[in-house]
Design brief:
Strand order of the largest sheet: 21-22-1-23
Number of strands: 23
Number of helices: 13
Strand content: 25-35%
Length: 420
């Protein structure tokens, strides 16, 4: 079994450019299937494991995909719903349904994979398809969605804000007959990026406030070129890595507009930084510095989102006092804490929250990256642990961080992959 091996007591020191957003790019790929014209995506995180898997599915569907260092060229003149392999590890397979429905009338999509971080229901996607006139059947190898005629615009009312549901409804609505209204939509930066690209392709979309979207269906969409937004989760990961290792770091292409609330929290916790319009400089080596205990609640954008929760858990371990982290969005998303406890005691998981008694002295151990963000938090813990940490299933982390190992080495981190 491959393991990522890291000797502890290391310090971040150098410069990193934030890559394009994983949670945006993977949805933009699906949107490119809505047209038979050329689509080019820039600032594209082509090294992500999830991106590689999505591209594999698209190639099976008939897309021509040309990858370059920071861009991808996509042409889907003809597509098929007959995949050769329905085994899939990514969660967003449901976004392959709208292009197949619009262009073929029948969609065959792999069952969603991805991280198991509590209850993630797919009935909302079924609701979108059925409400717009399709039928849904769960077969042994895949989900089949059928629509004899064109999807019909309608009112889609979500019981709570849902990013995946909003994206699915957008992709269904842009080529549907008539008007689609999405109530209780979740307009995160990644959803806004998808909307911007769809509009550039000729879609008619209006966003009212932050939870209501109106779509007037069009007959066809054009090709386009589009730049993927920077990844706010990656930016936060590197900031906290620098904080806990007491390092020095220059981050470029930082999406400040998408991180206002998390940055306020980091300042209160003790981070001091200098920034211009798109870069941030952190120096915890030469300045008086300590990490203050804190209480933080994770939920939806524009607040601290649930994907950021594990990084505040590792930050709390280095605070001088007791911290409390609550996750309202995914209250069961603390499974990774068991692996962190193998490295150091001080975590107490309760219903929907974790209480952290700092300062925890981590010790190297053999641990496992069970989920993406929790695995990344474990990796950060290994940087400050005493001794050697071996992370099993480390490729789970590579699903969400473009060129992660190379970036770590570029800021002075010594690491080794063993068992290849």
């Amino acid at each position: 079994m491959e393991r990522l091996c890291i000797d502890g007591n290391q310090r971040i020191n150098g410069q990193i450019r934030i890559s394009g957003s994983k949670n945006s790019a993977i949805k933009l790929l699906a949107a490119s299937l809505l047209t038979n014209k050329e689509v080019i995506l820039y600032n594209f995180p082509y090294l992500l494991e999830d991106i590689k898997e999505k591209i594999n599915l698209m190639r099976q569907m008939g897309s021509q995909v040309s990858l370059h260092e920071n861009s991808v060229r996509l042409i889907s003149e003809e597509i098929t719903n007959d995949l050769t392999d329905y085994d899939c590890n990514i969660r967003t397979t449901y976004l392959l349904a709208p292009p197949q429905l619009h262009r073929l009338g029948i969609a065959h999509i792999p069952y969603p994979g991805g991280c198991k971080i509590g209850e993630r229901r797919y009935d909302l996607h079924f609701m979108v398809w059925k409400t717009m006139g399709a039928t849904v059947e769960e077969l042994s190898d895949y989900i089949e969605v059928r629509c004899e005629n064109r999807l019909k615009g309608t009112d889609i009312v979500f019981p709570f804000p849902t990013m995946g549901g909003t994206e699915n409804a957008l992709l269904c609505g842009v080529l549907a007959q008539g008007v689609t209204n999405i109530h209780n939509a979740y307009v995160s930066p990644e959803v806004a990026d998808l909307i911007e690209m769809l509009i550039s392709m000729g879609a008619n979309i209006n966003v009212n406030g932050n939870s209501f979207i109106t779509i007037t269906g069009v007959d066809s969409l054009n090709g386009t070129s589009h730049e993927v937004i920077p990844d706010r989760i990656e930016a936060l990961t590197w900031m906290i890595a620098c904080m806990i290792t007491k390092g020095q770091l220059l981050l470029t292409d930082v999406p400040f507009a998408h991180m206002e609330v998390p940055l306020i929290h980091l300042r209160h916790i003790g981070l001091d930084f200098f920034n211009n319009s798109n870069s941030i400089y952190i120096n915890t080596i030469d300045l008086p510095y300590k990490i203050n205990p804190f209480e933080i609640a994770c939920g939806t954008y524009p607040g601290v989102v649930s994907d950021m929760q594990p990084f505040f858990s590792i930050l709390a371990a280095q605070a001088e006092g007791v911290s409390r982290i609550i996750d309202y969005r995914y209250p069961e998303r603390f499974g990774y804490i068991g692996e962190l406890q193998k490295m150091g005691d001080g975590y107490c998981v309760r219903s929907g929250e974790v209480v952290v008694k700092g300062k925890i002295e981590f010790k190297g151990n053999i641990v496992r990256a069970v989920v993406l963000r929790g695995g990344a938090a474990i990796l950060l813990g290994s940087l400050i642990a005493k001794g050697r940490t071996e992370i099993e299933n480390y490729k789970m982390i590579l699903r969400g961080y473009n060129g992660l190992l190379e970036k770590l080495q570029g800021v002075g981190i010594s690491l080794k992959v063993e068992g290849e």
